[in-house]
Amino acid sequence: xxxxxxxxxxxxxxxxxxxxxxxxxxxxxxxxxxxxxxxxxxxxxxxxxxxxxxxxxxxxxxxxxxxxxxxxxxxxxxxxxxxxxxxxxxxxxxxxxxxxxxxxxxxxxxxxxxxxxxxxxxxxxxxxxxxxxxxxxxxxxxxxxxxxxxxxxxxxxxxxxxxxxxxxxxxxxxxxxxxxxxxxxxxxxxxxxxxxxxxxxxxxxxxxxxxxxxxxxxxxxxxxxxxxxxxxxxxxxxxxxxxxxxxxxxxxxxxxxxxxxxxxxxxxxxxxxxxxxxxxxxxxxxxxxxxxxxxxxxxxxxxxxxxxxxxxxxxxxxxxxxxxxxxxxxxxxxxxxxxxxxxxxxxxxxxxxxxxxxxxxxxxxxxxxxxxxxxxxxxxxxxxxxxxxxxxxxx
Length: 395
Description:
- There is one protein chain.
- With about 400 residues, the protein is an alpha/beta fold.
- The protein folds into two domains: about 5-155 and about 290-365, 3-Layer(aba) Sandwich (Rossmann fold), CATH 3.40.50; about 160-290 and about 370-390, Rossmann fold (3-Layer(aba) Sandwich), CATH 3.40.50.2300.
- The protein is built from 13 helices and 15 strands.
- The strands form four sheets. It has a six-stranded mixed sheet with strand order 1-3-2-4-5-6, sandwiched between helices. Strands 8-7-9-10 form a four-stranded parallel sheet, sandwiched between helices.
- The longest helix has 17 residues, at about 55-75.
């Protein structure tokens, strides 16, 4: 991702409202008079435009803008345009909680979408759990979270790790793993699944290291990796932390004996890594290389709307999909009423670039086709194995 592109989008987001409609709307979302029938429906989005998660924010915003643009071009929701109201979480739980309260209590959004860390999600859950608002968490996470009004369409370890890590061990003929991650809920819980999966497959985890979010110097961690000489590294860092780590890892030449398996790296972050990311593996539910009519159509629209943007990634495309699914549910319900739209959320489906998606009624998660890809020079990827539809497991 180019720096100029990131700053431009982040600056737009800071204004609070992305005016995808020229009409102004405020207060209740249900039209109470004839003059309000054409007022836009405002939906909330919380993203990381600053802090350690900042590399993801602009690309997440692009997914939301693309979905809203396409929905509006197709007639909107019940004939009304959608309008995004965007808040910066700063990758901070307290900031995100305040933003969620503002969107729910002041803007009265019927739906709130978020792509952020699990620590931020946990904070926002406490805000939305007693509110009449549908909450969509749109990225990979550690699993195990459930609220009646929360829907999750990102990968969980049951999908990214359990079927994939034994395959990697067999294909690349190794058994020794090292884990490095940021010190918060997603990496620590994901690591538990990694350890159990590796041990079950006959391997071992020879080292584990967690660092605070925002870490830039990984010398002590890299010393541990050099000493352990693992075959594989489960890299559970995000954003700027991941970029710094991979550049330092590569500078020491550790890629010659340790294969890195990334779990949360988007194409923009990968591009920022440069040569350091080449050869690494990533299991995910989407890559631009997926061959399908829906993906071809999506990429054409995405590249037309954002010609300077990096290729879309698996951990941000859930934003696009969830907005599409919510709009389908609201149109099917012919209402913005919380109960009526909620009743339709697990009944509608969407032909996504990731495949035909539908939220499960039992978990509010979804089965996903999982791909294992290797990153190539130039920021592209090569899909080397497909695992088919993988269930998210109990939530």
